[in-house]
Amino acid sequence: MSSFETIFGRAPEATASAPGRVNLLGEHTDYQGGFVLPTAIPQRTTVSVARNGSAEHVLHSANSHKTLRVTVGEVGTDFAPYLTGCLNLCGVQEGMDVYVQGNVPSGGLSSSAALEVAALRALRTLYGLALDDVALALRGVQVEHEFVGVQCGVMDQMASSLADTTTMLLIDTRSLERRAVPFPEGAEVLVIDSGVPRRLAESGYNERRAQVEEASRLLGVTELRDVTDVAALDGLPELLKKRARHVVTENARVLAGLGADAAAFGQLMNASHTSLRDDYEVSHPQVDTLVALLQAHPDIFGARMTGAGFGGAVVALARAGQAAAAAQAVLASYGADGRRVVP
């Protein structure tokens, strides 16, 4: 594999990395002030940077074997906006050489957030920026909004910046208060790539956000976080009622999951997938098939799609020590070449 040195002919000035994340419960609630329960995954993205003395950024991705050139102050295309957004928001006015490598799978595991957080960490080191981990995460969200074109919430960047792989991280996305929560006893997390690609900016993600914002407006609340009784949604138009019902019930599922045993937590995950599939309508037929196979396995407590949806990864809660065997059995039935367990 290439390196910063082989591409640019010298050592980087700063290098940093950040993990992807998988969300156990709390999907599509973070842009309505809700509760989320992600954990970091072992896979990480690493970004190395150095000033190049020119008026041009040279951006190289080791994974795609692409090199992009973008004039300082501009945004660029392809993967460039994730990096130029970070550079522009950090006030970088000189040309940078940037090298990216990583093993965070795309599709539901926050590969874009890992890229942004890693890039911002490298720039924080290089320039001595006064950004704590929360401020850094919020700057990553700003990159998505202003440069990538995805009106995401705060969960992905907060998880990439603050979560670890040994606990779940309960985040109140309104106050940004957070605390570590232990995994249910006797269980382990299993993540499988469905093999269905998706791109947020070209999907219905922004549309869903607009729908729940309209539901909030019609209900006279700041955010659907302020609604705890689904009966309050009865006056909404049917489509908006479905969208809002998902957010309200998903917030309740996160809170119910705190301290739940593995069996109860698994049932909450199953209910979450049903809600995402039927009320929020962000799943995909192949994802539904994979989730159903997992839910039917005797060593799986529960399973659901994870991430924004429209393809991507699924997450399951497996009996401790049985995740690998369950994955092998389920994937044999799924019969899809290229679908893989995320180790």
UniProtKB/TrEMBL annotation:
Gene3D superfamilies: 3.30.230.10, GHMP kinase, C-terminal domain
Coiled coil regions in record: none
Superkingdom, natural source: Bacteria
Domain Galactokinase N-terminal: 3-51
UniProt GO BP: galactose metabolic process
EC code: 2.7.1.6
GO molecular function: ATP binding; galactokinase activity; metal ion binding
Keywords carried by this UniProt record: ATP-binding, Carbohydrate metabolism, Galactose metabolism, Kinase, Magnesium, Metal-binding, Nucleotide-binding, Transferase
Domain GHMP kinase N-terminal as annotated: residue spans: 91-162
PROSITE patterns, per database record: GHMP_KINASES_ATP (PS00627)
InterPro entries cross-referenced by the UniProt entry: Galactokinase, GalKase_N, GHMP_kinase_C_dom, GHMP_kinase_C_sf, GHMP_kinase_N_dom, GHMP_knse_ATP-bd_CS, Mevalonate/galactokinase, Ribosomal_Su5_D2-typ_SF
Class in the EC hierarchy, top level: transferase
Gene Ontology cellular component terms for the protein in this record: cytosol
Domain GHMP kinase C-terminal, first and last residues per copy: 261-334
Family: Belongs to the GHMP kinase family. GalK subfamily.
Entry protein name: Galactokinase
Lineage: Bacteria, Thermotogati, Deinococcota, Deinococci, Deinococcales
